[in-house]
Amino acid sequence: MFDQYLTANDAPSAGRSVLAALLAKIENRSAVVGVVGLGYVGLPFAVEKGKVGYKVIGIDQSADRVARLNRGENYIPDVKDAELKTLVADGIIRAVSGYEIVPELDVIVIAVPTPLTKNLVPDLQYVENVTRELAKYLRPGQLVSLESTTYPGTTDEIMRPVLEQTGLKVDQDFFLAHSPERVDPGNTRYSTKNTNKIVGGVGPRSLEVAVAFYRQTIDQVVPVSSAKAAELVKVFENTFRAVNIALVNEMMLLCDRMGLNVWEVLEAAFTKPFGIMPFFPGPGVGGHCIPLDPHYLEWKAKEYNFNTHFIALAGEINRKMPEFVVDKATRTLNRLGVATTNARVLVLGVAYKKDLDDCRESPAIAVIERLQKICHSVDYHDPFVAEFSEHGVNMKSVPLREDRVANADLVVITTDHSQVDYAWVVSHARHLLDTRNATRNVKHQREKITLL
What we know:
Elements: H1 16-28, E1 32-36, H2 42-51, E2 55-59, H3 63-70, H4 81-89, E3 93-96, E4 107-110, H5 125-137, E5 143-146, H6 154-164, E6 175-178, E7 197-201, H7 204-215, E8 221-224, H8 227-258, H9 262-269, H10 293-302, H11 309-319, H12 321-335, E9 344-348, H13 363-374, E10 377-381, E11 387-390, E12 393-396, H14 402-407, E13 410-413, H15 422-428, E14 432-434, E15 449-451
Parallel strand pairs: 1-2, 1-4, 2-3, 4-5, 5-6, 7-8, 9-10, 9-13, 13-14, 14-15
Antiparallel strand pairs: 6-7, 11-12
Helix pairs in contact: 1-7, 5-6, 8-10, 8-11, 12-13
């Protein structure tokens, strides 16, 4: 049904030769692909393109990333070490730090960060800087596709004017599209290849060439009517998750007041075979998407004199969760007869998600920061994160030894990494505050465990 948007062949003949030439390169895979930003999105995408025969050149401002990639060293968990090493050794993938290579590229995919300012305002400096650099070298017959998550209108309103200042016209001389990334780090079932790909173009020709490009490596490509629609698809997806996480977090806050076990309530509710979808509470939301993307939509909505009350409330609830965790830790210590000023706390996990080394926007760090202000000492252990420096907090992981667990007045589980033996931790700990229900399968000494 979505192919109704692929109408470029009905357009006037002007520009068709440029489109036909690029389509031919894409289909015979002689097109050279550039990937700007070689992180959790860019590197897996580059590998997928390299695996089907495209020559791929990555562009990244990190000299360390460029050097490591060119040595064939993998630094992203979702990429297989052997695959990357082979692609680099065969000359299929390489990386550079400058944009002088752009004229050699036929397709340029942009996967750079889109953070928020401290005032929750979209910060598009990376997208804007990349666009200006590309404009210096843009030539006819190139496709530029933005994959970074952003508010509806970015591709049309921010990128297009800069690129057209070159004198080249979009959908005639060059092609411009938005195809939001849908990467879920650590997901072993869904990868870049088998996750449905949304594509929206700035004009019908841009859509046609972008769909043709993504269909070479993605199992299912879903065209939509515009780049703006594609941008809204992604922020809605993450807003959906943020709102539902906020709902179960608020349910947890209510259960705390009522003296009920929220995990028992939710797990029973999720046995219903229809009309419900599992979401779970926790110490907050982390990563580069869920804490940020709803605010992109909230900010853009104000341009239309529209207040997204529901989205704003969800963000407020989720942002307060680290504060609640510390409050519950304080209450737990008081119940145990330990003053917070004398308390020694061991935090298990600082990554925002289990079995990853990614600390971006991790609520665990916000918890640690607050605990440090009121407790005698705070240490952390994370098998994936040896050290971190975020928001003025600089720490190194300590070994998970029996004496360290036993000497802590309270162990706080903030990330439920699979390789931690929680039964062992419970057996040696004085008490635990479990914010992830990581101890669900521990049968003995349950009296030592306080659930969020």
